[in-house]
Fold:
Amino acid sequence: MEPRSFRGSFGRSGSSCQPKSCPSSDQMKSSVTARSASRSPNSGYLLRWLGMPRMNNMTLRDIRWIVPVALLHLLAPWAGAQEAEIGSREPELERLKSQFAESVQPLLKRHCYRCHGAKRMKSGVRVDQLDLTLEDKELFLLQHIHKQLKQESMPPEDEQQLNKSERSLLVEWIEQTLREGQRKMGDKNGSVRRLTVAQYQNTLHDLLGLEDRLADVLPADGVSKEGFSNNRDTLLLTPQMMETYFEIADKSLSLCLVDESKRPRIQCFRVDLGTGVNKNPPPEKVELEGPRILPRSDYWVREVLPEKPFAFEPLTMQKKFRFIEGYRGNATVREWMDFEGLHHSVFAAIIGKYTGGYNYGRSSHFVPEGLLLRPRSPETDTVRGPAPTFSMPMRELPASGILQVTVEAARYDDGLQPHTRIPESEDRLNLDISGGGEPIVMIPAAGIYQLEVVLAGPPGDDVITAEIGKRTFSKRLKPPFPPPPGPDGKIVIPFLLARFEEGEISLKVGCGDGRNLQAMRISPVNADSEAGRQFAAFEKRLPHVSVHMGLRTDVGARLSRFDTPKAVPSAKIARYSFRAPISSFASPDTEKGNENYLAGLREIAIRSEPTDGRQMPRVLLRAVEFEGPYYEKWPPRGHRKIFFPSPNRDESTTYAREVIERFATRAFRRPVRTGELEALHAIWSDHHTETGDFQESVRQALMVILTSPQFLYLTEDSEGPGVEPLSPHELAAKLSYFLWNTTPDEHLLSLASKKKLDSSLNTEIRRMVADDRFEQFTNEFVSQWLALDKFDVVNVNVGKFPRLLKETKRELRREPVHFVTHLMRKNLPLRNLLSSEFIIANDVVAGYYGLGERGENGLSFAHLRHGGETLGGILTQAAILSGLSNGSESNPIKRGAWLARRIIGEPPAPPPPNVPELPEESEESGKTLRERLEQHRDKVGCAECHRKIDPWGLPLEQFDAGGLWKKKKIDARSTLPDATEISGTSDLKRYLTEDRLDQVAFSFLRHLATYAVGRDLSFNELEYLREEGRRRLGEKGYRMRDCILFVAESPVFRDK
Structure:
């Protein structure tokens, strides 16, 4: 058959090969993994294909340089049709050329060449090379010149000026040339681009059901000038990367495939918590450096059997140990000692019993039902880490697979600690608690009550504790205290707001040695009062449990989060399961011969997560259960997806063909071709003939698939340089990697196979936007488009911005992604991107913005009306504004350049080399920001660019380096490049949403389409987005989901 041509970039931009015939069966065999190369005859395929003699004992490292060459060979059928010869020009082009030589070029020589010629290129612009080839580079330059001429910003004021007729001549000639350029159809010739690291990881997850993040060992993808990591010209492939692909494929299949004839081995143990829960505590005392070991009677470690719908072998934990180095108290003991029991394998400890959290009382407390935890303290750089933390150092966990940690917990029936005393009332109960009295209290009616403790005099730094009925409460006392209400000098401490049922309850109060205690006052609280409303809000607040994991040497501070935190809504004990691959965490490897008692310990920690610092009900932990490797079914899902049920399972040849065909179709994102299937089946057949091992022989074929260009690359096959539509399966794959950042699902592929995807595109995009996988797109696209990585690396001055700690930064970093996701899913008009009456926030984000009392969403992001002018839209989001600072001071240059590039779509030229940073305020004492800006740009070659940057950044000076509205009044006036005068952020938002919305929309469509197709856009494609976008989307305000559909239906996306 005729070879098919395909022009695209492989590695570096512009690389190409001449077309050749499609790979044969033997050539397909040649891409078999190097692992199999060392153990099967297939190792010779790669070398024979390249015309080299087979060499014995060749390792993966020996042949890694061959693999990219082999991939180039396999890709050759798609890689390199030459540019079609440009035919004779139309008469209009000849006329424009003639006019250029006669009239235009002399004007350019006289007015432009001195600054924009061969010897000098101000702002990187050179106009002496115009030759009317109408290539994209030339068309973009003419468009830039046209804009300067229309705005009369060129020639500069200090240069000889064009007269009106000369300027008109140049403008009209450029406009005619640009129209002619738009008529010129550029070549397409298809496309080929490697999967990004994120796409590769997501695809392995969907294809094999793997949770392990094996792709994290790959180097980060390069970033294009538009800021995206999926541009085909930056997606290089090196021999080292190809070696890593082989290793990842090998490990992926090892994790995915199992021996069905063997029962899985599962480790499962449980730690029960509660006062006196262990009826037979061991007598030995164990010390661990760091967390404090809990009393042995208050926790019980035991092995248990999980309930499974399949047979399995329990993995029994080691119970006898012998160490030569251990500890007694703080002393190191170097002598051989024997240890026996699970309590030497799993420990239970606590960080922060009396302190930590938000200092509302005892941060952790044992009760018969379990362990009470307050929300942990904010992250700090202390070695011990946040407190309180329930810590479980342990010796044994499975080496691989998924670990499931199940926390049995409940929301405690807790009380709110008030800050003010309640006015006296006739209904107040006064109880004598002096001398250790434990009165019985009669609650007259169910409702909310405030409890106040009366002390004989000022207390020290202490804790009041109270056992009221079956509940336990405490409050931390720290001076100063409210003044005594009367002449007797007694101190009244507002202790507790809580809900009580009608009837008798017992009361036991403690504080220090108890001699300072005098009385307890109990007053009913009206539900409609301020205190009543505060308590009602407190009751609705949901605590969140989180699990963290690391090594014992991390000592709590550097543990990694294990799955996402989970809300605990119920007052009844419920099970909350957390899962993560063990490979995601450091392995506690120890040197051979290390016989230290503490060597090789992992640490798992349970915490109650804070939100915005407001009081929250405590979490009651009853037990923690560990199971690993965790299997929901046996064989696991990934194995079952490959070795699926079939009536031909007993016919090895037929079944192998079915398995390989089905897997290759899913991996290649299209039906596998006959030649490919024959080659893959031959690999299975050769290995099966030699070894008789059915599954291992299938594995060999799967290795070829997972390391083939058909899997690693997104290809759009083309017949020639003319424009062609995407095939149905190419469209399904392109759409899926656009909106899900992963492989298409069965529904998309089914529509493609039935040739129904075109007709149902609108419905499919709605489905895909609503799907959870859509967030894999928004996380990548929004983060790269809005340059959120700058927030990741900015070194925030925590002395000036103490609230910008690690956990707060993490939640603020998520805000722009959730915000844009909301706009797209709700199909809201584009103006909301810049100016909205709401924010999308969780309680951490809302609290940072001072809206804590308005949010009750915990760690979940939700719609929240802000009711002010200092919030709403991405221009006021802290992650963006703080990232565009130096961590101490706001920076109008960084913010202005970002807005010009990412939002308004009028990017300034790159800065010349060795340009100094904007001087900080401390370095230029007495100078205003405007004076420092003037000094900064008063450098040769700087002023022109800064006229396009600074005006956009000055209005955002109302926000500090922490991304919050500055308390002191700021001069945020600015004259924008089109001479519009504004006076701050609100004016800027109005200007962008009313006067420049079309340009903002074009910029958004440009970034969206560039990401969607994974390459730079041509001049004609950009003009299509500008003109057709305005015509089809402008009337309805450029609704965000409609913008996605517009891009997906456009020839920019659909043509190849």
